[in-house]
Amino acid sequence: MPELSEVEQVRRQMARIRCELDENVEDVVVSAKQMTDWRFYVKAYPWATVALAFVAGYFVVPRRVEIVRPDADEIAKLAKKNRIVVQDKTSAVQKADRGVGGAILNFVANMAMRTIMAYVGQQVGKIAGIQAAEPSPPGPQPTGANPGDTYGKPH
Which partner for 144 in 77, 79, 104, 149 could form a disulfide, CB atoms 3.0-4.6 Å apart? Predict the structure, then answer.
């Protein structure tokens, strides 16, 4: 009989370990869900979240373009360093004119594309609606109202 008590002890210990494992797995699942939820961090660390958002915004926002109006000496220095960009005023004016015309053309093209997409969407919706409204294909139908009736076979 001592062997049975040892066997029973081992069985009880294994059952206890299984229960503990189930609880540990549930805890791991809950903590994993919590770690991947951004709302947890906002609630737990609000100031750190604000700081992180500020830093991310600082790096995401582009720097302002610095327009330099140099004198003759500075132009000579920039030319020696090959860091000078010269733009003709007439080409800049032409680009500005193309910019306004291009913006108008872009707007019209965008509106046309949206109109076409809306029309196609309506037509697809009509086709899908017609197909959904069509009766189902013929198949075995119940022959009577009794629960024991068979499908497609007369009595």
Answer: 149
